[in-house]
Each structure stands twice: as C-alpha cells, then as structure tokens.
Amino acid sequence: MKPVAFALILSALPATAQESVDPKTELQAIVVHLQKIEAAMKIIEAMPDSADKTALNDGLQSALQVVAACNASAEKMRAAAGPEFTVGDQIDGLTLLRGRKFDKVTITALDAAAVTVSHPGGIIRILISDLSPEWQARFAYDPAAAAVAVASYEARQAPVRAAAAQRAAANQERVMSQTVDMAITPEVTAKIQAAAREKWAGDFSMQKYEIEKQSEAYLSLIRMKKVGDVPADVIQAAFDKWGDDFNMVVYEIEKQMTSRRSLVK
Question: What is the pTM of this model?
C-alpha cells in the first residue's frame, strides 16, 4: 500500500486540462492543486526520518515539477484572463516599488499602462510599472501593451495641454494689460510729488503721507473709470472743483454718488 503522503501527492496532481475549460475556471483549479501539493509537502516534512520517507523522494520531485508547471500555467492564465480589477473596484491599498502605499483606493480609470485611483488624499494616476511585481501581475501588466497605451494617452493629452497653455497665456496677457491700465504714469507721479513738496515743504513725513494718499486716490479714480458705474459728468464736476487734488476728487465723487443714490430711493 502506498504511504498516505504519497497518495496525497498523487491526488494533488492536476488532471489534463481540456481546451473547452474556461481560463478563469482552470486558473482556480490550478490554485486548488497547488494548495493540495503544499499540504502534502508539509506532511512529508513533518514525518520522521525513515525508509518510508525516503521512498517518497520520487513522488516529492514529481510534485515539485507539478508546482513549477502550475505556477507557469497560472501566470499564463492570469495574463489571458486580464486584470483582476475594473473601474469602480475598491482596493485596501496599492504598494509602489519605492514602498509608498495608497490606502482605501477606488479605481476611477484603468488602461494597460496606468491605473487612476481616488484615495483619502485625492486622485492620482499611477503607472502600473511603478507598482510592486505582485500588483503588476494582478493588473496583467504587459510592457508592450503599456507602451501603446502611454502613446495613446499622450496623444489625447496633447490638445488638452495646448488648450491649457493658451488659456494660461491669455490670462497672463489680460492680467498684464490690467496692470498696465492701473499703473500711475510717470507724469502723474511727478505731479503728485511736486504738489506734496509744495504743500508740506520741509516736512518729509507729511510729504510721504501725501504722496501715498494721492497715489491711492488716483488709482481709485482709474478703477471708477474702468468699472463705469460713476457718470462721467459727476467725475468731471469733481475735477473741475478740486483740480489735481485726487484725494478730494474721490471724496467729492463719493459724496455726490451717495446723495444721488439717496434721491433715487
């Protein structure tokens, strides 16, 4: 009678697969065979040294060959079956080659080259080649297919990036234009400084204060003109009354507009 452990090994050997068997079903069967062989090998290792154990060497070697063959078949089956995951699947964590781990992720996009996931820290697109070998296998990573996917992704992103660059340039141009429009010209600056020196001769502290006050008022006048919510006749009347005293011009405009709004009510 054959030893119990040897019988276990023989029972663990997979039957010849039929072509009609579904790849995923065959993959599951291979996993079961591997588990049985592992159990048989543990029994053999636990047995005391004896003639009976020596007689199992041939069976053990056969089992090891089956393990290697099953592992190779399992990898082929896994690749044929495709990735284990699809969009919407949740994973406890993804581990990168460098050791970084993303916990509690949800797959939002997936192709041959990368997986995009949402996680507590945001959303990130991870190249499958940057994942650990275990995760690469689970995503059925194929470098050739990944290269094609990367090229396709870059082609799709090119017009998106170009449009973003155009928008950024337009925004920058608009900001620069507004900055120029809002700038005080050298002529106005010279006029403000001259008036401050004349008004506060010898008092440099008050000259500085006057220049800052008048400059701020002038910028307010520019903003009023750009916004266009103050009638031109009100602005002109204020200038006629106060001339180049921009601070008083602004004060006059605000006073007149306050009175005007109260009359409209």
Answer: 0.38
